[in-house]
Amino acid sequence: xxxxxxxxxxxxxxxxxxxxxxxxxxxxxxxxxxxxxxxxxxxxxxxxxxxxxxxxxxxxxxxxxxxxxxxxxxxxxxxxxxxxxxxxxxxxxxxxxxxxxxxxxxxxxxxxxxxxxxxxxxxxxxxxxxxxxxxxxxxxxxxxxxxxxxxxxxxxxxxxxxxxxxxxxxxxxxxxxxxxxxxxxxxxxxxxxxxxxxxxxxxxxxxxxxxxxxxxxxxxxxxxxxxxxxxxxxxxxxxxxxxxxxxxxxxxxxxxxxxxxxxxxxxxxxxxxxxxxxx
Length: 279
What we know:
Layout: E1 2-7, H1 12-24, E2 30-37, H2 47-50, H3 57-80, E3 85-92, H4 96-106, E4 111-115, H5 129-137, E5 142-145, E6 156-161, H6 173-182, E7 185-192, H7 198-211, E8 216-221, H8 227-238, E9 242-247, H9 252-259, E10 273-277
Parallel strand pairs: 1-2, 1-4, 2-3, 4-5, 6-7, 6-9, 7-8, 9-10
Antiparallel strand pairs: 5-10
């Protein structure tokens, strides 16, 4: 049974990601953990005016959030009625990253699925500060779902690497698992730039041939300034359903997050992004 963590702020974007995950794993036995993280500063409502003096702000926050999660779960069960899926609610009063890391450890989470909400309310942006920070600071693989994206299957998947470090099968196990579920066509995109190393390229190719024998490979040459533009263009032109990468030092995503301030970072693509961490 898979354990999936679904952080939610009750926005349309996060609810869409929840439905994406449920559709994606509809044939699998899963425990879904819906997580809401509260902050006192974000709680402004008429409830504050009418709560009793014996009730703490913390208790009020947690109670309201639990009711909201319960409502979401009830709607999900009514719509899907999938006996293979179990749902659990978690409400925390903490920093988002700390809460996600703690929940992931406590419940042995296999995958985090998050809706993507860009800064300044730009829903066309793939992810904003919250999702970017989770990708950088959490050890569990993160699947980021663009706001209007509905699950229609994974037929074509792009895995990108610049071969600056050796990949191991442990860090690719999420990709291997998804391959077993959806039997998609995998393409490995090698990003060539000034930092490439031939030894790592050859060693990684041996790994991919062993575990992803039907995968095809291609390469593109990019400069740091045009890296996102060229990769995004490749994704759009070839109509990939999922974009996958490993977050390591000098990786494509880490260089993007370093180049663009996280608070204003925007990858304007509409393809789900799976980020796995270097083991």
